[in-house]
Each structure stands twice: as C-alpha cells, then as structure tokens.
Amino acid sequence: MNQDVVDEALRALRRADAGIEAGPEAEIRALLAFRRYRRRRASQRIGIMIASAAAVVALAFFYRPIRETPRAALAQAPVETAAPPVAASEPRPELKHVAEKRPREIATDFFPLLESQPPTERAMLVRVTVPAATMRAFGLPVGDQYLSDPVQADLLVGQDDLARAIRFVSVRE
Amino acid sequence: MNDIEQQWLKRLLKGDEEAFAALYRARHGAICRFALHMTGRMEVAEDVTQETFLALALHGGRYDPSRGTVTAFLYGIARNLVLKRIEKERPEDSAVAEFASDEDVLEDLTRRESIDEVRRAVLSLPATYREAVVLCDLGGASYEDAALALGCPVGAVRSRLSRARAMLARKLAPRCLVI
Fold it and tell me: Which structural domain range is residue B8 located in?
C-alpha cells in the first residue's frame, strides 16, 4: 500500500473538516460556565480573606498556646484555694477538683484557610478569639445580632507560621 | 502565537472573561475537531470543547511554559476528556465492525469525492494510534506538542504515527489496488 495515498486521504479529510468548529451556543455555554466558576471562586476568596484577616488580628491580640492552658490552671489552683502545703505523697484533692470542673469543649471540623495547602511538617494548634462574623464567612449560621460576639477558635499553624485551617469551639462550663 | 496565548492564560486565571473568550475563539475550532475526529460525534465534540476550556480555567495554573505550548496543554485536557467519553460510550466498536466489512472504501471515496470513509477509517483505529493521527496529521500539531498532549516521549509519537499510518494503509489497501 502506498503511504502517499494514505497521506493524501488524511490531507483530504483535514481540508474537508478545516471549517468545523463548535457552534455559537457552545461558546455562550462556555462563557456562562466560566462566569459561574469566577463568581464561586471570588466568594470563596473573600470568605477566606475575611477569615484569615480576622484570625491574624485575633492571633496578635489573644495568642495563647493551648498546651499551656491546663498547666496554668493547675498551677494557679492551689494559690486560689489557699490550701496549706501538702507532702508530695499525699493526695491533692484541690487539683482533682480543678480537673473535674474543666470546661467541656465542642468543636467544628477544620476549615481550610489556604486554597492550595503547602506541605505541613509541623503544626501547632493556637487558641484565639474571633468575632462570630468569622463563622458566617465559613458558611456557619450566625444570627445578625451575634455577629460581633467573641467566639473561641483553634488555628492550625504550620512550621512556616502560616495558618492552615481554623475550627470553632464552643466552651461550656 | 504562544506568547499571546500565555498572556491570555495568565489573565484568564485571574478571572478575565475577555481573555477566556479570546483564547476560546482562537483555539476552540482545533479542540472541537480533535474531539470530533476522536469520537465521531459533533455533540460530544462540542461538550468536550466547552469542558476543556472550563478545565483550563480550573487547572490552568499547572501549565508549564517550558514543557510546551498552551495549545498542547489544551489538547492534553481535551484528550483526557475524550478518553473518558470513549471509555464510557465506546463508540468505536460499531465503527470498527462496520468499516471492516467494507472493502471498497477508497473507490467510493474517489468516485463520490467523499472523505466520510476516511473519517470512519480513522475512527476505527485504536484510540492510542488514532490520537496520534488526529493530533499530527489532522490537527497539524508538532511532534513535541503531541508528545506533551499525549504524555509520552516524542519518539513514541513518531512510532505510533507510523503504526497508525500502516494500519490505515491496510484498511484502505483494497481500493488502492484498483486505483
């Protein structure tokens, strides 16, 4: 079989189909789909920017690593109760009392703060206080009258000091 | 041309609708023809074209200018979408059987001045070889662009193309002897 004939046949097909293209309806559909995608992305970015800004501001004012919290509470407890010093081998009822009264926490899932997550080698959980409006930015229901109320949140901060994710915490005594 | 397309892509990724429309108008014909030659169905080709450009808006950040042109990147997206359609619908099965039973393909082509049978012959090729022919012979893509779109070395494109042409030659052989 002569390859020239195949080449000629393919050239003929190419010439015949050179004018074929998607119709104008396809272009309109593509443009509408692009607009939908653009709107969705813009709203996501705005939400993330608001939440990130609120989290960073709150972090600057209310930085308080979680791990230190129970230790600080335990260390302060004996002072507050003004109990007499006891031997190390004796039971310490006042510490047990503090532990039992530790607030119960209910947390949401983590919401990502970065569109593309950089690799996380180490992470630290940081408890911050943010306005309740931040929750709304992540799609959580918040009444208008509560938007400025402070709520507790945990920031997951990576080794590069960038906050990766946030979750909201309800603290109940 | 590729410089302009790269600029359009950058703007498109920032949400510029004009850049999206410009790139679509410049390249939708090529993508549509690629999908048509691969699937043989215009409605599928139009769907694939639309999905290709939307996927470009979503994943265009992965484009690496050092690896090839924007068009080649578009072909790569379209190819993935087409292969998914082919896998789901398998339209070539009937085309192969139909073509295999016809021994006067090129005679009809010459007599009726029609290229429909050649189109069917291309459609009857296995997808791996068909995409090489559609990209390089029908789409006019360079071997380098085809290699990027197909995710294989340039040498593999050449060998697939050679094998595809040989298969086409066999399919069209009976008629060639008459000519």
Answer: 1-89
**Pair B11, B44 in one domain:** yes
Looking at the fold, whether B77 and B107 belong to one and the same domain comes out as no
Six token digits for residue B6: 């790269």
> Closest chain B residue to A15 measured between Cα atoms?
B138
Contact residues for B45 (Cβ-Cβ < 8 A; gap 6+): A22, B32, B33, B35, B36, B39
Q: Do B102 and B164 belong together in one domain?
A: yes
Phi and psi, residue A156, nearest 5°: -95, 110
Burial A94-106 (b: 16+ CB within 10 A, else e): bbeebeeeeeeee
Decide if A156 is inside a domain: yes
A and B: number of Cβ contacts within 8 A: 105
Distance of CA A162 to the CA centre of its chain: 11
pLDDT of residue B98: 42
Distance from CA of B156 to the nearest CA of A (A): 20
Residue A162 lies in a domain: yes
pTM comes to 0.58
pLDDT at A126: 84
